């Protein structure tokens, strides 16, 4: 008789499951952390979680390797060698906090603007901004200025929200889904789930991207567009749809400012919207033929009527749109060559958008009442939805391109309707519901309001009486008037140049600004180590916080080591970047499922201790005692407004209130019991038409999203932009400098336009060069992860077949890639599914030797590389005596993807052994990790 081995087919995975929130990208998925003997044994998705519903990607599963990474910082550090040497000594937390307080307290009391506090991919920005506001410095922002501010700003100015964290497609009803410039790192699990639903139903996916990878690889149609021309392509689609009359006129007249009258009278108000004495936009009522406020009960706005007053004919916004977009300059035949898309294909895509939006329209039998008091028996579904991200945003024409995409959705009537794009609470929010930016306060006192906001016109610029910038990054100046997320990529170079002033302390969190998160990488490293004639550093003090020994650590004077995400409290708040879905408001926490085995502390709790030691206003009571002992205490007990705190769930003494309510001291325990999240579902009938649906507005007020109903019109015509144009034309008290007048007048058009970026391929630099993040990586810490490195341990330069042949390249060859700023030598790989004049690579794979506890011969440090070495924060000289920022002129968004290069085969390929430029190793405060990362969990 054959004896079969006894196999345990259901081995015990864990002793306990602790449910929390992932931090391996910005999806904020729910995870089940399996524990054995108090250690992490396994991470899987939480099937009850509203974001991922159990789906977990490679990043999320590999979180266990982050928690055990050899690169983790182990204790506070104080620099003992020169900056950049990586030479530190370990110090106690008491010495670290005392040192930081000694540096910061004097600034708070005398010159708070000399502190520049900037955070990277921080997911607690409502808290870090609160800290900076109470310190009194005007110099605060997070990483949005070099990521996707164009998308966010354009969306809010146009329709009260944008893609990703602001909204999502109606996945269950969409029949045509169109992506623009989307890589796979942002919101990847929900998009994968959504695309799976579309494919199962036979819906169509169109991917617009120079690179066919990820989502574009599974799209039914791939449009390999020329980088930076998406706006021109979209305006051509608008041209065709308007010319064919395939737009939703009823939707435009009811819910947008298309029927609002534009002042045609010459003078300081020309081009502004006509308003009544209460400031309400005026439309012509079809019934009376007379002007009326847009929200007057019973009014039916007329798109075609004009209004004559004092001999001047005032026309509605829609007339101005028709005049612009019906022009032949937007005909497919006129734009095809620049976009790299045949005219016939542009026409086909426009026809398909119209066919699905109108011929496949449907209705839901759901009654709802709009803000004018009119009750509708049904809801009209138009099953077309869009998604766009950094590939669109990171161009110098990105703001207007993002606006064009939003306008295209609106013309089709596909926003906030069944089958279309839907907002996630707390959005939609009109610009009027957002603050304006605030700058200088008085020493020892907080700013009067938040740093970042949405300017309504020149009066909101952060400049002094002489026109000088109040902020170190020059946000909210004539150079970048609507820079709602700041310009993090300009902070170090401006501080080094002393323009607009010198700073004393640079304080950064999770911002790898000496390597992959910066333009002009080698230049920034020099700026961080530059000295004055007296031998002192130009930037006198640098404080840095990170969980890992990144490249930036070596350039700091004081290191405050952070925990990993399973060792601390975090709050994914409705006040910040929540986890909501279109059908519900939701928020979440992280909590210490394990205790640190190192002398490290959560950064947010460290900020509270610094604030308490300095007795910062907002953090201390009138008697000087602290309000909160740590971040967990703050999350529960802080109230931004009465009854409104960081978390919306389980409020009140009994934990039975949501949105608004008194503090519940057991709130965190209730979140932990519930899986680390809270969900409040929108009632049926309030779930669509959110900006105009009275039921949704009332529900949002009850949840504390608004203090009063905030119905508004979508802004096809953005009036604040016209206010800046008027200033450039000589109107108003605040005037731009002469050298910026033409740019403001030309670029800040209140209707979306397209223009060439400043890097147009002069001097032989004619090839487009891009980066994008892979699905398996997000932050630069991904490529020190032992599991994820097996997926992406190096990054070749992907080159289209045409350029490979043209330059005699074969796969595995080394190529020299040059820009006006510098050159790199890198390995190449052929890719056919790629725009034929574009090269690209994965972002943040390349590492500097000595960082991240990797060995000096690690593939990331020898075969990996950065395109950042080719990109400068300033544009090449134009011959006008000025150096212009490499940014969008409206928002200051870093124009990463405008890079133009030339490519050639390396001169002596047999002599090339590693990517160039190669920098000397950094001395690591954590040393080098073991060759094999092994540990035992359980018995």
TrEMBL record:
InterPro entries: Asp_de-COase-like_dom_sf (IPR009010), MoPterin_dinucl-bd_dom (IPR006657), Mopterin_OxRdtase (IPR006656), Mopterin_OxRdtase_4Fe-4S_dom (IPR006963)
Domain 4Fe-4S Mo/W bis-MGD-type per the UniProt entry, residue ranges: 15-71
Annotated signal sequence range: none
SMART domains: Molybdop_Fe4S4
Superkingdom in the source lineage: Bacteria
Cofactor(s), names only, from the UniProt record: [4Fe-4S] cluster
Subcellular location: Cell envelope
Keywords recorded for this protein, A-Z: 4Fe-4S, Iron, Iron-sulfur, Metal-binding, Oxidoreductase
Region (Disordered), start-end ranges: 428-462
Compositionally biased intervals (Low complexity): 444-453
Main location: other
Family, per entry: Belongs to the prokaryotic molybdopterin-containing oxidoreductase family.
PANTHER family (alphabetical): DMSO REDUCTASE CHAIN A, TUNGSTEN-CONTAINING FORMYLMETHANOFURAN DEHYDROGENASE 2 SUBUNIT B
Name the record gives this protein: Formate dehydrogenase
Biological source species: Ruegeria sediminis
